[in-house]
Amino acid sequence: MKKLIVGLFVLLPTFAMAAGPSVPLMKAGNDLTDNASLQRGAKLFMNYCLGCHQMQYQRYERTFRDIGIPTPVGEEQLIFDGSKVGSHIKNAIDPDDAAKWFGAPPPDLTLISRVKSPDYIYTYLKSFYKDDSRPFGVNNVVFPSVGMPHVLQELQGVSTAITEEVEEHGHTVTKIVGTVSDGSGEMSDDEYDQAARDLTNFFEYVGEPSRLESKALGIKVLGFLFILFILAFLLKKEYWRDVH
């Protein structure tokens, strides 16, 4: 027990550092029943993310079926490398090359919404800002010193950081509290917000594709148990009637 307690005290600072800075997260407001949003999110992922990030535990065919994309349409518009529709969603990037370019291989994103959270992903997608000191010219409010480019910049435009002076522990420090786009992107602010929500929605679906089915099954099971309880209660009353 003593070793366990000591181990926890040793590891807690590590977990705190891994958690990163405390930044208020924006609400993603996902809706897994919105197939139109999921389809737009899938399109964004295939066009802007798949070049570096894989979803190696998710298959094209399952994705198309779940979010209402006809298989021929999905094969034509969302599979760019000639993969079979039953294949896992992978790319051709070499991990060693990726490590040289980005400092580390880009992570698989199949379970990113479960590792982080939809709110974190949504805030992350909206929190890139121009930073000439970084290798790709951008940084991120919720992920300082991020090692990837802002791949959606052509949609959002170039964003700059919004800062304010705050008092912390008796000292005045400058904190980044948000970002603002210069309007040079292909989308308006509202359109980009929706695109970030669509992509986040897609990530949440991929993290647990059977969630809606599980929820529906759970409701049916609870309904069955409720009816069974009533029948069992009535049977008990009938059984004990003569005894009393």
UniProtKB/TrEMBL annotation:
Binding of heme c, residues: 49, 52-53
Signal peptide: 1-18
GO molecular-function terms, A-Z: electron transfer activity; heme binding; metal ion binding
GO cellular component: a single term: membrane
Coiled-coil stretches noted in the UniProt entry, renumbered to this chain: none
Cytochrome c domain sequence ranges: 36-203
Keyword Transport attached: no
Main subcellular localisation: membrane
Subcellular location: Membrane
Alphabetically ordered keywords of this record: Heme, Iron, Membrane, Metal-binding, Signal, Transmembrane, Transmembrane helix
Keyword Iron tagged: yes
The record's free-text note on cofactor binding: Binds 1 heme c group covalently per subunit.
Cofactor: heme c
Transmembrane portions of the chain: 217-235
Name of this chain's protein: Ubiquinol-cytochrome c reductase cytochrome c1 subunit
Native source organism of the sequence: Pseudoalteromonas denitrificans DSM 6059
